[in-house]
Amino acid sequence: MNAADTRWDFADAWVFTAVGIASLPCELAELVAVADGINHAILLEDEVESALGKLSGAGLLQINDDWTFQLTEAGRGLLTRRRGNLFSQVDSVANLLALIKPVSVTVQLPAGAMANAIDEYLGRLSR
Description:
mainly alpha; two-stranded antiparallel ribbon; 53% helix; globular
C-alpha cells in the first residue's frame, strides 16, 4: 500500500476503539471480543492487519512481540477525547483519526492467529 494513498476507514477506528476499551495489553481474542461487542460483527483478518498497520505506523498503537497490543502515549491521549456510547465512540474516534495523517506499515498476523482468536472468542460464548 502506498502511504500517500492511505486513508483511515471505519475498521481502523473500530479496532482502535476496541483496543482502548480492552484490558491492556490486549490479546487478539480480546480484540475480537470487544470489537464484536461494539459493532455486533467479527472483524476480518485483513481489516485487523490494515488497522494495526495504520495505527502503529501513526504512532498510536504498539504491537508487542507476543502479538498483544497496547496504546502509545499518543494513542491514549487521542482516545481520552472520544465521546459517545459504545457504538458511537467509533464515529467519534474516526473523527479524531481524521486529524492525523495515516502512515501505513505492513502488519501480517501469524498464520492461523486470527482464526484461533475467533475460535477462542466463540468458545467463550458457548460456555
